[in-house]
Sequence to fold (872 residues):
Amino acid sequence: MRTVRGHFIGLATAIVVPAFLISAFLMWWDAEREREALERDLLGRARILSQAIEREMRVSIAALEAVRHSTVLMQGDVQAFIEVAKQLHADHPHWNGVVLTDREGQQVFNLAAQPGRPLPNIAHYEVIRGALAGRASVSELLVGRVLPVNLVGIDVPVWIDGHVKYALGLSMPASYFQNILASHPVPKGWIIGVVDQKGIIVARSVDPTGGVGKPTAPFWMTTEKPEDIVRGIGRLDIPIVGAYARSELSGWRALVSVPVTVLNEQRNRRILALGLGSGALLLAGGAGAILLGRRVVRPIEHLARDAALYLQQTPPDDSAVKALDETRILAESLTRAGHDQRQALAARGESDKQFKLLVEGVSDYALYMLDPNGNVSTWNSGALRIKGYSAEEIVGKHFSKFYTNEDREAGEPQRALEAAEQNGRFEKESWRVRKDGTRFWAHVVIDAIRDDNGKLIGYAKITRDITERKRSQELLDGAREALLQSQKMEAIGQLTGGVAHDFNNLLMVVLSSLELMRKRLPDDAKLMALLENAVQGAQRGSTLTKRMLAFARRQELKKEVIDIPQLVSGMSDLLQRSLGPSIVIETHFPVVSKPVLGDANQLEMILLNLTVNARDAMPNGGQIVIATREEVLRPGEGNQLRPGTYVCLTVRDTGTGMDEVTLHRAMEPFFTTKGTGKGTGLGLSMVHGVAEQSGGWFTLRSRLGEGTTAELWLPVAEGQASASRSEEVLTDKLADLPSLTILAIDDDGLVLTNTVAMLGELGHSAIAASSGKQALDILRKHGSVDLVITDYAMPQMTGLELANAIKKQWPHIPVIIATGFAEMAAEVDTTLPKLAKPFTEAELAKMLDLDFLRAGDGERVLKFRSRPSSKH
Fold:
């Protein structure tokens, strides 16, 4: 057995010597890893410090940019802008001052300068030249150039009329960056600092007072890389290892360094600890090898001796029997291990079989394998259902067969495999093609499969058909867009309606005052001509207000007799201004045109809407023809319209026209062909709704490239008097109105004054009240009020609430509601008369010519007192 022992000793030697060499290598490798870790730590800290400084600079730039578009500065009011700058300075107390500089470099104002001291010209500063060139700039460290402190300047350009007119800047003390360094602690012995573009120290953690404003060590500035590791002799004449990171915004560098002595001290401690540990491990290993050798060699010697005795047919002694028992145990253990391995292989085969059944049973996903070249190697039932290919048709073919022609030409299949190989996984949603040529929207996942050695052996691919989910998402996105458009229109409507309501009150004051002036002015033709011009201007304003209220849905659909040619003529100026000079408008009306029944304001809005749509369909200009014709529909001739006589108003353009799909959807709410942000999609649906509400119909005819014709059918007004004839009859009856005591209520003093004046002109005794509460007090004290006229929209108590209170306490007193809002119609009792603002004296007189019925304890009728004569 000497040979076995000798080999065992040689084996132990072969293990100990390499272990010693490996220990030495590990000490060297650990030192290198420590060095690399230190460099990464240095670079990471420099990067974080640079980001913190750049973030502070961007915050300051954002603050300057927030005020550079100030209205007063855009208007050239520098004195007013100084107050804005003071507030900005107050919000940033760490700034030293705020400066405004003109294009010549002359400071316009400087909040840090002493009052009365002339402001310098700083055109030679790089930061000013950068801002005036149109970019935000950060200066180098200004060492006592402006004030007896070290400063840093940040400036942004101020654009006015497309040109940089000023540079708006701030100054910040260098000590502020010392605070930033303090918020980034480093291990003991390390040094951090910040230098500007020229290598001048702005702040540092060691000896800040003695180093700030002086050049840093030259080796820090020798490379122009964004970040790097450097070595050299520092300002304190000691070797250092450091890292820097340069700010892209300012060009400043954040420096982090550690003296080599500190580094060597740490490394030596680690080497010593590792050496002692390795030595102890080698000693322990050698001792263990000797003991283990004895334990292994002795049983082998016994086995060899027992084998020799067995060959000599000599019964072995107890020790030999023991050795033979150990050999038998070893054989039995190997046999048992082989049996266990066979069972494990059988179980693995059953597991693989179950997994294959599971994969084949999945029908919602296409699960299959690809070889490294992208050829299909396996195929499941889900792949057959989704893609349409059987396993016999597709196995061995390249998976690019499922891609569209466009994606294949663009190289998408190869890019997918490359991405899966590089990243381990590729995931994307895109179009795929079935066997029958139809497309479906697929969610695709490709995983790279590698063996135990990391070699690529293929890809696992999962494809799911999510076409229905994509369609549902598109429908949801469309509904969300429609909701946003609806909310936008609601907000615009509320704003427009509110402005128009207030404007109504002002127009009422103007119109009523002009009417009263016309009665009191002398019979001077020139004065009367000017007065008539003023009245016409106010009436145009009233018409514009009605259009705004109609747009905002705050005006009721008021049917009246309309002469369409006269209406188009009245708004011709508006149409031409709205459409521009590139559009030619033609009108074709018959010599005698029957009037129609509808809302004049809404009809004007419809004409404006249709002509603007026609203009948008003619980007290079064109012709719009507005025409009317009379049509008689007999029973069975029109599915949408009742039999009768109609006037068909057409608006025809020479634009691009629409295809069948677009024409079919043109009147859907929120559908628009003008692109995102250029239309609400409500115009044509509004026209359709108004036409139906008026008893008519709206239709479109169009062909791509041949223009569009919009037709609005409105019923003819048969046997109804025109508004002008009604006004003439009303004027003849003004002298017969009774004399009343009328309480007028309005929270607008101007409107109230003119209402009282018009009532006086009509021969009535008027009492004024500015609120509902004041009106109730007057009614309690004054027992002879015949009628109440109240504004609807009043604070604290609305006109409706006041009318209800009067009805409870004085049921015999009629109440008239004056308002410009259409929403009131749904709230106010339909028996209450409504007077639309702005109203004229004639309209007020017409309203007072009614008998008002009110129910008290029993039905009572107010009989107006007749008056013998009138003032006019």
